[in-house]
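Re: the multi-chain job from yesterday

Posting the exact lines I submitted so nobody has to dig through the queue logs.
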Amino acid sequence: MHNIMVIARREFKSYFDSPVAYIVITFFLIIAGYFFTSNLFLSNQADLRTLWGIIPLLFVFFIPAISMKLLADEKKTGTIELLYTYPIRDSEIVLGKYFAALFLLGVMLLFTVAYAFTVNSLGNMDVGQAIAGYIGLILMAAAYLAIGVFASSVTDNQIIAFILALFISFFFFIADKIIFFLPSGIAGIFEYLGIEYHFQNIARGVIDSRNVLYFASLIFFGLLLASHSLSRRRGD
Amino acid sequence: MIELQDVSKSYGGVKAVDGVTLQVPKGQILGFLGPNGAGKTTTMRMITGFMPPTAGTIVVDGQSMEDHSLAIREKIGYLPEMAPVYQDMNVLDYLHYVCALRRIPQERRNTRIKEVVDRCGLTTVLGKEVGQLSKGYRQRVGLAQAIIHDPQYLILDEPTAGLDPNQIVEIRALIKELGREKTVILSTHILSEVQATCSRVIIISGGKLVADNTPDGLQASLSGRNVLLLTLKGNVGDAAARLKAVPSIEDVRPVPTGKPGESKFRIESTPGTDIREDVFILAVAERWTVLEMIPETQSLEEVFHKLTAA
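And the result, structure tokens for all chains:
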């Protein structure tokens, strides 16, 4: 735990030493804010549904941008060589990086709480449902991020890490939206694979263990594979 | 004590290190010599726990790397080639970060950092970002992170690469000083470095150990025959034939001097004999005027070339 925190703290600070964090957060808030406000008064409902509609798609692009450098950059610059020779487990390196990015995403989402307060001041918002929505949002971000960390672990090229993460994330994003074109036998599987299906269930206000389990397994396997790919080293 | 038993490493079927067996007792400064791509870095990386060998075992202080990798890594300080240090951190923050990962207790960190900063000469650059430092300073930061936890074993991969001559002298002095209390393994392809700092030399070529000796011993073992450069006054036409007639002389070749009135010969002895006296006696008997008589010692460069150029 100690090692994970040390690595996470350094990584989190380095996000703010470069323009990456500022750019990603700013653009995320602009785009999310635009889509949120443009429909808010049309729908005439005091809830965050328009926000929940756009964020799963935004995450597909923004989370890979946050995760791409995590391990790929250390591999490229060779700094990971020292981490490999310190008394640290590979899984601790992965988790340290993961938590740093997760914390950054938490900061990013914290800004959107302003939208919730706006809605609440305009009408009678279901606060419980909004909180459930945020729990779902964090779970979904954590799952996308695990995919991003895995993508960053298999290459030393940030662009490849970004595209790979985007590709995998998009698969999970689209899976439950293409079931009309699929034979009924596998349609159920694809619906279950779809990330938004699980997120919208939670955002409705019901935190079901089935949905939580889905996110937990994505996180677990993403990080496991990332740790495994680090342990293969492959020299230089 | 670091022990390597028949250690091999292959990358996709190509053997980078091939059956290396080696023992490094405490308190030795071991120079690891070899041409580029000979397997120096790979061998060092295996000793540091960076990656496991494909075959063979590595044992440090009786603990095998396979089962006690984390415990062994605590005892080792490692400076990789090119000293990869986070470019966007300043030196002081970086050293604090390494202290935390090396689990140096909070209250001892400041004194420990001060010690290594003094030792590595980093006082003036503490607040600077590593990315802005010169190669020499970056190398010192790399060295500082390697010794900050006071390890028993130091593994240094080309510690003087890319430094200017003054910095090289400083770093060598530092390594020598560290070598008094620690076991040091350093790799290099600069031969004078080995002569200047190491108590033992190992030459690796094509992934295999080809020599293991002291620097002087290595030189001696290969220069079994003595070579003498003899310059005589005047054109002594039959000198080559006369010299060849001496039993202890095996080969005589005239060397062009470019100067009229001088003749020069390269004389090679039979193995293990000193021919200086024989040559002198002959010169007196023949009434030759000897202008120069220079023994030619084989430098470590030649030894290295002979062993690795196959």
